[in-house]
């Protein structure tokens, strides 16, 4: 253990501690220039300054995490009886870096208040910026010094936990994969201070693990952070105990070509892309419609898509991202399975029809998982923005999810048909993009086009006279899907081995 601690400190270096000391000193001194508060009140204000903690201290902390991401060599790991014991020891060993960061910050804060009058009480001068913060803290702590000590200990524990979270992410995602994940989590913490829609999410970010008073607002906030403190270490230990070589692939029951193609398609990267699309669009819609009170209105907004007879850039980009992301992954899958298939696969398939059934089955399951994520996103989004999912909202959600499945499934079949004739997956994908763009055409023909028909803006649901009826839209997608499925199963399969 002592060797790991010493190695971690050597890898971490002390330049980050020096930068934290200077930055904290500057932030803390600037906070005492505009009004006269006591020394105890000043140090509590400095240690609770969420702008300093979010935009200066947290980036230095996350930068420090990359010093610990790399595993030691086999000789070091072999000294432990298992990998998860090694990881736990390395994580526990980072307490020294977390303690040093906290001690450096505390020293800078204590020095910044030198010369201020002593006074360990809550009373503030009129107009002090800390009035709201102190009114919250004085309901819990008897005096500012006790609050300062607890906030400091909380930041030490939070820093230690963040080290472990980043090391955990780095183990499964690798150093290159950890950079965008950790950066995305930091961005959520950074925008939390400015966007009320993000503040309403029951999401525990890095900021909640460092800033104590961010967990004191709301009836669920402290409970969510407390659960995170308990479950994240448990999840890390269990995952490293049973899947330390990497996360397992999703295994779906089945035999033959269908099971083979499902295994090829359901890789972790593809599933993460689907999750990222659903999470990103749902978060974007939730932030832009945080004051929506009706569950029906929220579902309509989430699945709105793009109407017909006009062109708007953002709705069209949103529609193409939500439909194009799974289609792109399916296009890569088709290119790999059809053009890149080996003689062994062809022989094992026994017939071209079994190959086609396998490709269709794998694509159907993939689209089904994607639409299930959309159903989950719709429900969680309603909870996050505080909408009540009444009966009509549930019916609209089920209809919207079913239509999205049929829409993407039909485009997948259409792309597969074009590919069988052209053997160019890029051509089929571009034709799909052009088909979605046809919605800008005026007239009834554009309203009945099957591409992008799952967008509720094209269906007469909440606004009569706009779009076609729900039954007609459903019938169009089902009819075209059945027609193309039959053609591919009977005739199209003959071209799969050309």
From TrEMBL:
Q: Does the keyword Membrane apply?
A: yes
Name of the featured protein: ABC-2 family transporter protein
Transmembrane ranges? Answer: 12-31, 51-70, 91-114, 145-170, 177-195, 223-244, 265-284, 325-345, 366-385, 397-422, 429-453, 465-490
List the keywords (alphabetical).
Membrane, Transmembrane, Transmembrane helix
Question: Could you tell me the superkingdom of the organism this chain comes from?
Answer: Bacteria
């Amino acid at each position: 253990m002592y060797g790991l601690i010493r190695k971690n400190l050597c890898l971490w270096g002390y330049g980050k501690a020096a930068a934290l000391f200077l930055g904290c000193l500057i932030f803390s001194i600037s906070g005492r220039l505009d009004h006269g508060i006591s020394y105890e009140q000043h140090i509590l204000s400095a240690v609770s300054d969420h702008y300093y903690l979010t935009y200066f201290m947290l980036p230095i902390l996350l930068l420090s995490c990359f010093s610990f991401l790399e595993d030691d060599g086999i000789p070091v790991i072999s000294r432990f009886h298992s990998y998860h014991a090694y990881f736990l020891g390395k994580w526990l060993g980072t307490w020294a870096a977390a303690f040093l960061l906290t001690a450096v910050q505390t020293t800078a804060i204590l020095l910044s208040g030198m010369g201020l009058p002593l006074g360990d009480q809550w009373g503030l001068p009129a107009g002090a910026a800390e009035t709201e913060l102190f009114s919250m803290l004085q309901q819990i702590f008897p005096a500012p010094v006790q609050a300062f000590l607890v906030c400091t200990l909380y930041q030490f524990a939070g820093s230690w936990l963040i080290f472990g979270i980043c090391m955990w992410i780095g183990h499964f995602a690798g150093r290159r994969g950890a950079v965008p994940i950790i950066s995305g989590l930091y961005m959520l913490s950074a925008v939390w201070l400015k966007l009320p829609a993000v503040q309403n999410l029951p999401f525990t970010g890095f900021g909640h693990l460092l800033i104590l008073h961010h967990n004191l607002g709301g009836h669920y906030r402290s409970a969510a952070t407390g659960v995170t403190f308990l479950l994240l270490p448990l999840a890390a230990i269990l995952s490293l105990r049973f899947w330390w070589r990497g996360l397992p692939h999703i295994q779906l029951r089945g035999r033959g070509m269908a099971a083979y193609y499902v295994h090829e398609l359901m890789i972790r990267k593809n599933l993460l892309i689907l999750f990222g699309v659903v999470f990103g669009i749902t978060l974007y819609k939730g932030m832009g419609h945080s004051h929506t009170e009706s569950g029906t209105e929220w579902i309509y907004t989430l699945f709105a898509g793009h109407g017909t007879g006009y062109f708007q850039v953002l709705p069209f980009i949103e529609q193409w991202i939500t439909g194009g992301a799974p289609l792109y992954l399916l296009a890569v899958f088709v290119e790999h399975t059809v053009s890149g298939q080996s003689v062994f696969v062809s022989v094992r398939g026994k017939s071209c029809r079994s190959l086609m059934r396998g490709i269709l089955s794998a694509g159907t399951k993939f689209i089904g998982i994607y639409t299930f994520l959309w159903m989950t996103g719709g429900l969680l989004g309603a909870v996050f923005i505080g909408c009540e999912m009444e009966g009509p909202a549930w019916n609209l959600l089920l209809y919207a999810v079913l239509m999205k499945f049929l829409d993407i499934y039909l485009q997948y079949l259409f792309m597969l048909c074009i590919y069988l004739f052209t053997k160019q997956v890029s051509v089929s994908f571009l034709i799909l993009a052009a088909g979605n763009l046809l919605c800008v055409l005026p007239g009834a023909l554009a309203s009945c086009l099957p591409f992008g028909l799952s967008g509720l803006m094209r269906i007469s649901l909440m606004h009569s006279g706009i779009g076609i009826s729900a039954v007609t839209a459903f019938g169009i997608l089902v009819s075209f899907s059945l027609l193309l499925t039959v053609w591919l199963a009977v005739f199209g399969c003959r071209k799969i081995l050309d």
